[in-house]
Amino acid sequence: MITPLSSPTVPLKGVEILILDAQTVDETKSTVICPGLGIKNHTITLKSSASITGACQIETSNDPTYTGVWAPLGGGTINVADIGPAAVGELQFQFSGITFNALRVRISTVIGGGSLSASYLGN
User: Fold this and answer.
1) pTM for this one?
2) pLDDT band for position 38 (50/70/90)?
3) What is the distance between the alpha carbons of residues 57 and 45, in angstroms, rounded to a whole number?
4) Cα atoms found within 13 Å of the Cα of residue 105, Cβ hemisphere only
5) β-strands 71-72, 78-79: how paired?
6) Domains, the chain, ordered by start
7) Which helix (H) or strand (E) is 7 found in, with range?
């Protein structure tokens, strides 16, 4: 089992941590991850409890306590209907060779039909 942590947190290399636990509410933000300088390979795994609808966004900021709009990572919002058990079950996003000051996952459209969880693994 992956244990949720308080926000922000500095992950250990090779240890997967739960950053968003079975959430559905629009604008819910995950635990903020502050990878150390030695972590340059990042994996965020999204999982659903059922066939769900909605969207989320992986985001970054130079300041883990920043309260404004964070910068989106990837090609835009992620349609979570693509990760339901009826589809692929989980979806992973990997970023390599980059040092991030802070990362998080934000629900950008309410999750319907179940809930969304996310975990982080850094190496």
Assistant:
1) 0.88
2) confident
3) 12
4) 27
5) unpaired
6) 17-122 (2.60.120.1110)
7) none
